[in-house]
C-alpha cells in the first residue's frame, strides 16, 4: 500500500484526484484532519452565532425602528442615534460610566495596591485578610446590591444611624438624585477592590526576593523599595487590572438593578442599565441596538488603543 | 531481522530551511549506529523522520525493505527513547511501560506478562507503583527504556537519551545501554552530540553537518582516518592542531612549517593542483621525547603555556603563526619559555586540501 | 524601632478598618434575618436581643428556594461541562494540530473576548427567541458557554503549549492518534487548568443575572438571582425577610469559596494575570 503511494508522488502526471488523496494521507497522520473536523466546528459555530453575529446585527438593526416581530422594515437611517444623543438620560448614563472609571482609577486601584503591598507576604493573618477582602467579589451582584440597599435605607441601616446622630430628617440616599450615584460608587469599590488586590498580590509574590534585598543593600528605604522596585516589577499586573477595571466599568449593570434600577428619575443609569431600560423592556430593538453599538465602539476603541499602546511592550 | 535504509532523504521546512540534504545510509540488522554532529546538523530531524514524527520532504525510508514514508509511527515497528524521557506524568511506572500495549488492545494479563520481565531486567520492579516525579534521573531513564523495550520493536531509536543526566550517571547508563544492546541485538540508532558516547557505543558512526553526511565509518576509521577537516576537528579532545602549510615536491612531497621542512613519506593525492593545504596533527601525536618513535620528524618550538592535568600535561607552543597544543605524559619535564624539540609521528599526519577540505594524504602505516 | 512599631500599628488599624467596611454589611445581613422589623430599625448592626427564627423558616416555607437553587445548579453544571469540553477541544486544535491559518481563527476567538456581552443583547435575545430557546435553561446555558469560550480557549491553549512537546512524540510512537492523545494524556494532565476555568465559569454562571432575566419568563425556570429580586419585589421593605433570604442564597457561594479558595482565587484572577 505504501509503495504505491510514494511512487504516485514521484510521477509528474498525477491526476487531481490522486493529488487530493495524497495530500489527505500526508496531512492525516494520527487522524489529524479528522480530529480537526470534529474538534473545531462546535466552538466556531457557537461563538459565531452567539457572540459575533449579534454584534453585526446590532449595527444593522440600529438603523430601523422595530419591535422585534416580523422583519425590520421601517428604515430610519441614523435617527435612533440622533434620538439617543439628544436624550438627557443617556448623557447621564455616559457621565455615570465615566465616573465609575474615574473612581476605579483614583480610589479603587490605589486602595487595592496599598492593601496588596501590606499583606502580600505569606502569613496566617495576611491570608485571613486576603480572604475577607476577596469575599465581596464572589457574591452575586444582585445579592450585594440588596445588602447595600438595606445599609443605605433611610429607615434602617447606616444612613438611619447617621441621620439619627445628626438629629436631622431621614435621608433616603438612594432616592436622592444628587447622592444616589455616590452611594453606588461606594458599593462598586466595596465589591471589586478585592479582585484587583488579588492580581497585585499574585504579581508581588512573583517578584524575586533577592531584588528587594539588593535594593535594601543599596540603601533604599521601605518607600523607595516599593516605588522603585516593587511597583515597576508588577507593572504588567497593574496594566491588566486597569484594563479589566475599565472594561468592567463600561459594562456595569447587575449592581444597579437591585440598588436603584436606574432611578431616581434616571439619574443612576449606566450604559447597560440604560440599554436595558429603554431598549429591552420596551422592545425598542432599533434604539436599544444603537445603544449597544455605542457601547461596543467604546469598548473596542478602548481595548485596541490600550492594547496597542500600553500593553504592547508587555507581551 | 530489521535493516533500515535511507534513500535520498530530504527535509525542507517551510521558509525553505533545508535541514537534511540527500541523506543516504544503509543500516544492517542488529547494528548500533550513532548519528553524531553539532546541534542543528539535522541528526535529530533524520531520526524523527524515521520514527514517523516528521514528514519526509523527499526520498524514501525503508525498514526491512519496505517503504515506510506514509506509515503511522506505530506501524513502523520502532520504539524511541527521548532526551527528556517524556514519561507520562500522570501515570505510574507500570502504566507508563504498559501504555503502548494498552493502546494496542492487549488484555490485562497479557500486558502484565510483558511488563514484568522488562521491569525485572531494568531493576524497576520495586518502583512500578511510583509516579515519574518520585524517581531519580537514572530511574526515569530506565523507565523510558523499559517503555521502548516492552514492545519488542525491530528498531530502537535514542534521541540524546543521556544528555539530561549528570556526568557520573551518564557513564553508567552508557554502559547499561551497551550491555542491553549486546543482549537483545536489535538494530539501534542513537543520536548524540557527545563524541565519547559515539566512540564507545557505535558499530558505525555517521557524522553530520548542516544536513549533510560528512563521513560514515567505524569509530577507529573516524578517529584515525578522518575524511575531511571538519571530521578531523570535530572528533578528538583536545582538538586536532591545524597548521596552514605550503605543499611542495622535490625528491618527494614535503611541507614547510615555520621554515622547517617536514618530509611526507606516504601517498599524497596527486590530483591536487592546489599547493595550499592544512596540516593536521593530534596533540597526542606530538611528543617531547623521541622514545617509542621509529622515525620521528623533529621541529623546534618554544613552550608558551603549560597546564598539569594529572596524568598528562597539556602545553601550547607556536610554529610560525599557528598555535599548537601538545599532550604529553606528566612525567616529562619541560618548563615554560623553554625552547624544546617536538617529535612528530609521521604516520599520524593528516593533510587537508584548502579548496575542498578533503583529506589528501595517506600515511604509509595506518594504524587500524 | 519605635517608628517601625508605629507603622505596624498604623497598618493593622488601617486593615481592620477596611475589614470592617467589608464585613459589617455582611454580618448585618446575616443577623438582620433574626430580628423583628422594630428591632432592625433601632439596632441594625448589633446582635439581636430576641432571636426570631420565623423569617429564616419562611424562606424555606414553600420550597421554592430549592427549585431556584436547583435551576441555578443545572445551568451552572452544564455551562461548566460544555465550556470545558468544547474549550479544550478547540484549544487542542490550536496547540497541537496547528492547521494552516490557525492563528487567524485563534485571534478571532480572542478578539471576541473583548466584546461586551451586553452590547448585542437585543439581537442575542431575538436569536435565542428565533432558535426556540426562550424560557428554557439551555437558552441560558448555550449563550453563556459561547461567551466564556474566548477566555477558556486562551487559558487552555497556553497550558497545553507548556506541556513538553516530547510527550506528544512519545505518545505518537506508543500508538496514539490525536484524539487518543487528547483523551489519555492532555485531559488527565490538565486538571489544574480545568479546575481554574471550571471555577470561573461556575461562579460567573451562579451569579449571572442579565442573561436569565432576558431569557426566562416562567418562575419554574428561574435561577436564584431572579428569585431573590422577585422576593424583594414581593416583600418591599420587610428587610428582615429579605435579609434572611439573601443570607440563605449567598451561603452556598461562601461555603464553596471557603472550601475551594485556592482554585477560586486562581480561577477569577488567574485569567487576568495570564491573559
Automatic annotation (TrEMBL), chain A:
Give TM regions: 33-56, 100-120, 132-151, 179-204, 225-250, 285-306
Keywords of this entry: Cell membrane, Membrane, Transmembrane, Transmembrane helix, Transport
Q: Which InterPro entries match?
A: ABC_transporter_permease, MetI-like, MetI-like_sf
Residue ranges annotated for the ABC transmembrane type-1 domain, each copy included: 94-306
Determine if Transport is one of this entry's keywords. yes
Where does the UniProt annotation locate this protein? Cell membrane
Q: Identify the domain of life.
A: Bacteria
CC terms in the record's Gene Ontology section: plasma membrane
> Which Pfam families has this protein been placed in?
BPD_transp_1
One GO biological process this protein is involved in is: transmembrane transport
Native source species: Marinomonas polaris DSM 16579
Family label: Belongs to the binding-protein-dependent transport system permease family.
SUPFAM superfamilies according to UniProt: MetI-like
Q: How does it sit in the membrane?
A: Multi-pass membrane protein
For this entry, the protein name equals Carbohydrate ABC transporter membrane protein 1, CUT1 family
Q: What is its main location?
A: membrane
TrEMBL record, chain B:
GO molecular function annotations of the record: ABC-type transporter activity; ATP binding; ATP hydrolysis activity
- Biological process GO terms, please? carbohydrate transport
Transcription is among the record's keywords:
no
Pfam families according to UniProt: ABC_tran, OB_MalK
> What's in the keyword line of the UniProt record?
ATP-binding, Nucleotide-binding, Transport
Name the SUPFAM superfamilies on file: MOP-like, P-loop containing nucleoside triphosphate hydrolases
A cellular-component GO term for this protein: ATP-binding cassette (ABC) transporter complex, substrate-binding subunit-containing
Which superkingdom heads the taxonomic lineage of this protein's source? Bacteria
The record places domain ABC transporter at: 4-235
What InterPro entries does the record tag this protein with?
Answer: AAA+_ATPase, ABC_transporter-like_ATP-bd, ABC_transporter-like_CS, ABC_transpr_MalK-like, ABC_transpr_MalK/UgpC-like, Mo/tungstate-bd_C_term_dom, NA-bd_OB-fold, OB_MalK-like
Protein name per Swiss-Prot or TrEMBL: Carbohydrate ABC transporter ATP-binding protein, CUT1 family (TC 3.A.1.1.-)
Automatic annotation (TrEMBL), chain C:
UniProt lists the family membership as follows: Belongs to the binding-protein-dependent transport system permease family.
Alphabetical keyword list: Cell membrane, Membrane, Transmembrane, Transmembrane helix, Transport
Q: Which domain of life is it from?
A: Bacteria
Q: ABC transmembrane type-1 domain location, by residue?
A: 69-260
Checking CDD domains in the record gives:
TM_PBP2 (cd06261)
Predominant location category = membrane
> Which InterPro entries does the UniProt entry name for this protein?
MetI-like, MetI-like_sf
Transmembrane portions of the chain: 12-34, 73-94, 106-126, 138-160, 181-206, 242-260
Output this protein's name: Carbohydrate ABC transporter membrane protein 2, CUT1 family
According to Swiss-Prot or TrEMBL, what is its membrane topology?
Multi-pass membrane protein
The scientific name of the source species is Marinomonas polaris DSM 16579
Provide the protein's localization: Cell membrane
For the keyword Transport, the answer is: yes
Sorted alphabetically, the Gene Ontology BP terms of this entry are:
transmembrane transport
Amino acid at each position: 500500500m505504501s509503495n504505491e503511494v510514494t511512487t504516485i508522488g514521484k510521477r509528474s502526471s498525477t491526476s487531481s484526484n490522486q493529488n487530493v488523496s495524497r495530500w489527505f494521507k500526508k496531512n492525516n497522520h494520527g487522524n489529524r484532519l479528522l480530529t480537526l473536523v470534529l474538534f473545531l466546528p462546535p466552538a466556531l459555530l457557537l461563538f459565531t452565532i452567539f457572540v459575533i453575529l449579534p454584534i453585526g446585527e446590532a449595527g444593522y438593526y440600529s438603523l430601523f425602528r422595530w419591535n422585534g416581530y416580523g422583519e425590520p422594515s421601517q428604515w430610519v437611517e441614523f435617527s435612533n442615534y440622533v434620538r439617543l444623543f439628544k436624550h438627557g438620560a443617556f448623557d447621564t448614563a455616559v457621565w455615570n460610566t465615566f465616573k465609575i472609571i474615574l473612581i476605579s482609577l483614583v480610589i479603587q486601584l490605589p486602595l487595592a495596591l496599598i492593601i496588596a503591598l501590606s499583606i502580600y507576604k505569606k502569613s496566617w493573618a495576611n491570608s485571613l485578610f486576603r480572604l475577607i477582602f476577596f469575599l465581596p467579589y464572589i457574591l452575586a451582584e444582585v445579592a450585594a446590591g440588596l445588602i447595600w440597599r438595606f445599609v443605605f435605607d433611610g429607615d434602617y441601616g447606616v444612613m438611619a444611624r447617621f441621620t439619627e446622630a445628626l438629629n436631622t430628617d431621614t435621608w433616603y440616599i438612594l432616592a436622592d438624585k444628587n447622592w444616589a450615584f455616590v452611594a453606588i460608587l461606594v458599593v462598586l469599590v466595596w465589591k471589586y477592590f478585592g479582585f484587583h488586590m488579588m492580581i497585585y498580590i499574585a504579581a508581588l509574590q512573583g517578584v524575586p526576593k533577592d531584588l528587594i534585598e539588593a535594593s535594601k543593600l543599596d540603601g533604599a528605604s521601605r518607600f523607595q523599595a516599593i516605588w522603585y522596585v516593587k511597583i515597576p516589577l508588577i507593572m504588567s499586573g497593574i496594566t491588566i487590572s486597569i484594563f479589566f477595571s475599565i472594561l468592567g466599568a463600561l459594562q456595569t449593570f447587575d449592581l444597579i438593578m437591585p440598588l436603584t434600577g436606574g432611578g431616581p428619575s434616571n439619574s443612576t443609569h449606566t450604559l447597560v442599565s440604560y440599554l436595558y431600560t429603554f431598549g429591552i423592556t420596551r422592545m425598542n430593538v432599533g434604539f436599544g441596538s444603537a445603544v449597544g453599538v455605542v457601547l461596543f465602539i467604546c469598548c473596542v476603541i478602548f481595548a485596541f488603543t490600550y492594547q496597542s499602546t500600553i500593553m504592547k511592550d508587555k507581551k | 531481522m530489521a535493516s533500515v535504509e535511507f534513500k535520498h532523504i530530504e527535509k525542507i521546512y517551510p521558509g525553505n530551511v533545508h535541514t537534511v540534504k540527500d541523506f543516504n545510509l544503509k543500516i544492517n540488522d542488529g547494528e548500533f549506529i550513532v548519528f553524531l554532529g553539532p546541534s542543528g546538523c539535522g541528526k535529530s530531524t533524520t531520526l524523527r523522520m524515521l520514527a514517523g514524527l516528521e514528514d519526509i520532504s523527499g526520498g524514501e525510508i525503508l525498514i526491512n525493505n519496505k517503504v515506510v514514508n506514509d506509515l503511522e509511527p506505530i506501524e513502523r515497528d520502532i520504539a524511541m527513547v527521548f532526551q527528556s524521557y517524556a514519561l507520562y506524568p500522570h501515570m505510574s511506572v507500570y502504566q507508563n511501560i504498559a501504555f503502548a500495549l494498552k493502546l494496542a488492545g492487549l488484555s490485562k494479563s497479557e500486558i502484565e506478562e510483558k511488563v514484568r520481565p522488562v521491569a525485572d531486567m531494568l531493576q524497576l520492579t520495586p518502583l512500578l507503583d511510583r509516579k515519574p516525579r518520585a524517581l531519580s534521573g537514572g530511574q526515569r531513564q530506565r523507565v523510558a527504556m523499559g517503555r521502548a523495550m516492552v514492545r519488542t520493536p525491530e528498531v530502537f531509536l535514542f534521541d540524546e537519551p543521556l544528555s539530561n543526566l549528570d556526568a557520573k550517571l551518564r557513564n553508567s547508563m552508557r554502559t547499561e545501554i551497551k550491555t542491553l544492546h549486546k543482549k537483545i541485538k536489535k538494530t539501534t540508532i542513537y543520536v548524540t552530540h557527545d563524541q565519547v558516547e559515539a566512540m564507545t557505543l557505535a558499530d558505525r558512526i555517521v557524522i553530520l553537518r548542516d544536513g549533510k553526511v560528512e563521513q560514515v565509518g567505524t569509530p577507529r576509521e573516524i578517529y584515525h582516518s578522518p575524511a575531511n577537516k571538519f571530521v578531523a576537528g570535530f572528533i578528538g579532545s583536545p582538538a586536532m592542531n591545524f597548521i596552514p602549510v605550503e605543499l611542495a615536491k622535490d625528491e618527494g612531497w614535503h611541507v614547510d612549517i615555520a621554515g622547517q621542512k617536514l618530509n611526507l613519506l606516504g601517498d599524497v593525492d596527486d590530483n591536487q593542483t592546489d599547493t595550499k593545504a592544512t596540516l593536521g596533527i593530534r596533540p597526542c601525536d606530538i611528543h617531547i621525547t623521541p622514545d617509542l618513535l621509529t622515525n620521528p620528524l623533529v621541529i623546534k618550538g618554544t613552550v608558551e603555556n603549560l597546564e598539569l592535568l594529572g596524568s598528562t600535561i597539556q602545553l601550547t607552543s607556536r610554529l610560525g603563526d599557528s598555535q599548537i597544543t601538545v599532550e604529553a605524559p606528566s612525567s616529562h619535564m619541560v618548563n615554560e619559555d623553554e625552547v624544546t624539540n617536538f617529535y612528530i609521528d609521521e604516520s599520524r599526519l593528516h593533510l587537508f586540501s584548502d579548496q575542498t577540505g578533503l583529506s589528501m594524504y595517506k600515511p604509509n602505516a595506518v594504524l587500524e | 524601632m519605635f517608628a517601625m512599631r508605629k507603622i505596624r500599628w498604623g497598618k493593622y488599624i488601617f486593615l481592620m478598618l477596611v475589614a470592617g467596611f467589608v464585613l459589617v454589611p455582611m454580618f448585618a445581613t446575616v443577623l438582620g434575618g433574626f430580628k423583628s422589623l422594630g428591632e432592625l430599625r433601632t439596632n441594625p448592626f448589633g446582635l439581636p436581643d430576641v432571636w426570631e427564627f420565623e423569617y429564616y423558616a419562611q424562606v424555606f416555607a414553600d420550597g421554592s428556594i430549592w427549585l431556584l437553587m436547583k435551576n441555578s445548579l443545572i445551568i451552572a453544571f452544564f455551562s461548566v461541562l460544555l465550556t470545558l469540553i468544547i474549550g479544550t477541544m478547540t484549544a487542542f486544535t490550536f496547540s497541537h494540530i496547528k492547521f494552516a491559518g490557525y492563528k487567524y481563527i485563534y485571534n478571532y476567538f480572542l478578539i471576541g473576548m473583548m466584546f461586551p456581552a451586553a452590547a448585542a443583547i437585543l439581537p442575542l435575545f431575538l436569536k435565542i427567541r428565533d432558535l426556540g430557546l426562550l424560557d428554557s435553561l439551555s437558552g441560558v446555558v448555550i449563550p453563556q458557554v459561547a461567551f466564556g469560550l474566548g477566555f477558556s480557549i486562551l487559558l487552555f491553549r497556553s497550558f497545553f503549549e507548556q506541556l513538553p512537546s516530547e510527550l506528544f512524540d512519545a505518545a505518537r510512537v506508543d500508538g496514539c492518534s490525536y484524539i487518543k492523545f487528547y483523551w489519555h494524556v492532555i485531559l488527565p494532565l490538565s486538571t489544574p487548568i480545568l479546575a481554574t476555568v471550571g471555577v470561573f465559569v461556575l461562579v460567573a454562571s451562579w451569579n449571572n443575572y442579565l442573561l436569565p432575566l432576558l431569557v426566562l419568563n416562567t418562575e419554574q425556570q428561574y435561577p436564584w438571582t431572579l428569585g431573590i429580586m422577585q422576593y424583594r419585589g414581593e416583600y418591599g421593605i420587610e428587610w428582615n425577610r429579605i435579609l434572611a433570604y439573601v443570607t440563605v442564597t449567598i451561603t452556598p457561594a461562601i461555603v464553596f469559596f471557603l472550601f475551594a479558595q485556592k482554585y477560586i482565587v486562581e480561577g477569577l484572577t488567574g485569567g487576568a494575570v495570564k491573559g
